[in-house]
Predict the 3D structure of the following.
Amino acid sequence: MNSDSKIKLEKRMMNLSLCGSIAFVLVEAIMAYVTHSHSLLMDCIFDITDLVMIGPFLLLVPLLYRPVTERRPYGFSQVESLFLVVKYIVLLVITLQLIWDNIKYILHGGHEVDAGQVAFFELGVFAGCLVVYCLLYYYSRRYASVSIQAEMYNWKLDVISSLGVALAFFGQMLFQNTSYDWITPYIDPVVAIAMALILIVEPIKIIGRGVRKLVLFAPEEEVMNEIRSIAEKYMQTCSYTIEFLDVIQTGRKTWVEIYIDSPNDIITMRSLSRIRDGIREELKKEFDQVYVELIPNLPE
């Protein structure tokens, strides 16, 4: 798939996510106000934060496909990494604040809501989120950048969390007018905290990966081992050896520099081109935009 096709597909997917987010934010905000449910408020704030971030990213997408230059050796890839780090730090801060607010509600006797209203509403949200996720999944089979993967993860969480909230409040309806009726005021804040704890895991992981990319640290050991294994397979055809492997990932781009040595001190340009092209084509199956350079390891 060429760059123009990728841009069009990515914009289509981001616009789909944007329209879906706007629709759900509006209905969730209305229902959170009507029912005073903290679980709905948690969903709404999470979606608002995501929505605020989608708009600027749509302007960034075309820049991510511009070629690298001497002035911008990494293009705009680090902007994407920075964008994701900022996005998930905001989500993390909001999530922690909501956890603390709901802990205070639990300590002060809980919070009563209309379980039926919330349960049936969340069931409808579950169905809507599932439709959007399925559409994104369908398009992602052709192409999925790191930002699209992040959007898909958000929608996947919405599907799981909305179903979980619906089941929790259907459960609350069963407790009403029974000996367990005292539990009902605690269900809304407890569900909100449970959702927050689920949502908090991925932001922490993405922030960690994003910071590594911003400071140009090497990727995870599994990624390094995979690249080394592919490179060694092609090196063996000319008896070259890898002296040093330098891998940088930032945004959707991956730079691979391989310092090589030859047992007879003879390295030909033809063999370098053939090996580089083979490594690059195989890495393209796993990485979005990959650059490979083979560098003879000169003695000090």
In short: The chain has a mean pLDDT of 80. Strands lie at 241-250, 253-261, 289-296.
